[in-house]
Amino acid sequence: MASKNLQNIILLYNIILICGLCLVYSKAELPRFEHPIKPDGSLSILVVGDWGRRGAYNQTEVAAQMAKIGDQVDPDFIISTGDNFYEDGLTGVDDPAFEESFSNIYLGPSLQKQWYNVLGNHDYRGDVLAQLDPILRKKDSKWLCLRSFILNTDVAEFFFIDTTPFVDKYFTNPKDHKYDWRGVLPRDEYLFNLLKDLDTALKESSSDWKIVVGHHTLRSAGKHGITFELEERLLPVLQENNVDLYVNGHDHCLEHISSPDSPLQFLTSGGGSKAWRGNIRPWSPEELKLYYDGQGFMAMKLTKYDVYIQFYDIVGDILHQWSGSKGFYSV
Questions:
Q1: Which residues, at least 6 apart from 40, have a Cβ–Cβ distance to it below 8 Å?
Q2: Which tens digit of pLDDT belongs to each residue from 196-241?
Q3: What is the DSSP string of 252-292?
Q4: Which residues pair with 44 in a beta bridge?
Q5: How far apart are CA 77 and CA 116, in angstroms?
Q6: Number of C-beta neighbours around residue 88 at 10 A
Q7: Given pLDDT bands bounded at 50, 70 and 90, which one contains residue 18?
Q8: Is 86 part of any known ligand binding site?
């Protein structure tokens, strides 16, 4: 256990040196980074997921539209909700898929900002440590990927969570897939510590907005639907600590589901490339604010008191928009 902790500390230290990011120490065990906001007190973000297909399945077109919207909203950073490289992650740090699916695709000037990435289940099917390796940062300075970490800004805290190890079937019934569980086993200990650290960090947080980012769905009318392991273990932590937004990918769609009993909103941005047409499950129309089974991405703007969400399709049309303020949420 001590050896594993030392390896993690060395890896994080190398990432910090290469990235030039500001690491802030906290009582919680999750690494914590700082990102500045705009002088007017706002924060703008683009969110995309399930994208890495060497430009195929309209990945290039989604990237081009992100760049156009980025020119308008001037994102401070970009979030990837995982499944960064299909079908089976990276084979290593020298895998050309890194350039062919990332560096050579997201070329617009407005996309040359810091990317904060989480891992998806497809990423675990390759050399999972490659995506975490600071060598990739040397190849493309906008790349940053850790398993779980905290990003602090003056208006919001973002809690990036490694959701793949929660899902039982990847361990009990992997079919023909091989998952790289280095750094995760023993699984029970890994998940216990992750939930404990997340709960501690959320309780310590005094941020105006608390946003949790993971790959897997908590609420979804898409093909994958509800991830029951997350519903059982992660959702109570979010509800107890008054998390405002849960942002995910995994289902290849764009989606907004509201909670019937809390302000928590579930936002799916998994339309970065291949979409699943016609895969929709029955859902309460009072809760399902958007379900779009096509490609696209999400934009988010936050201030101390307000949040604005917009979902865009591949041609830049706004599919859905939503706003919320502390004290009330719009419908």
A1: none
A2: 999 999 999 999 999 999 999 999 999 999 999 999 999 999 999 9
A3: SSEEEEE-SSSS-EEEEE--SS---TT------TTTEEEEE
A4: 301
A5: 8
A6: 17
A7: very low
A8: yes
* Residue among 85, 110, 111 at smallest CA distance from 100: 85
Ligand-binding site membership of 215 (annotated): yes
Residues 221, 282 contacting (CB under 8 angstroms): yes
| Catalytic residue annotation | 224
Beta-bridged to residue 283, according to DSSP, are none
The type of residue at 59 is Q
3-state secondary structure of 161: coil
CB 118 within 8 A of CB 215: yes
Find residue 328's DSSP bridge partners.
Answer: 325
256 annotated as belonging to a binding site for a ligand: no
- Look at residue 326 in the predicted model and tell me its pLDDT: 85
Give the Å distances, CA to CA, from 222 to 45, 149, 160, 226, 246. 24, 27, 22, 9, 16
In the sheet that holds 296-302, the strands lie side by side as 143-145, 114-117, 77-80, 43-48, 296-302, 306-313, 318-325, 328-329
| CATH number attached to the domain at 30-325 | 3.60.21.10
**pLDDT tens track for 92-108:** 999 999 999 999 999 99
The neighbour count for residue 301, using CB atoms within 10 Å, is 19
Q: Binding residue per annotation — 83? A: yes
Element of type H or E holding 326:
none
Dihedral, 326, 37, 113, 85 alpha carbons, nearest 10:
-30
List Cβ neighbours of 198 (8 Å cut-off, separation of 6 or more): 28, 30, 148, 159, 161, 212, 237
Reduce the DSSP state of residue 247 to 3 states and report it. Answer: strand
pTM of structure: 0.92
Inform me whether the pLDDT recorded for 268 exceeds 70: yes
Which pLDDT score is estimated for 15?
52
What are the tens digits of pLDDT across the range 113-130?
A: 999 999 999 999 999 999
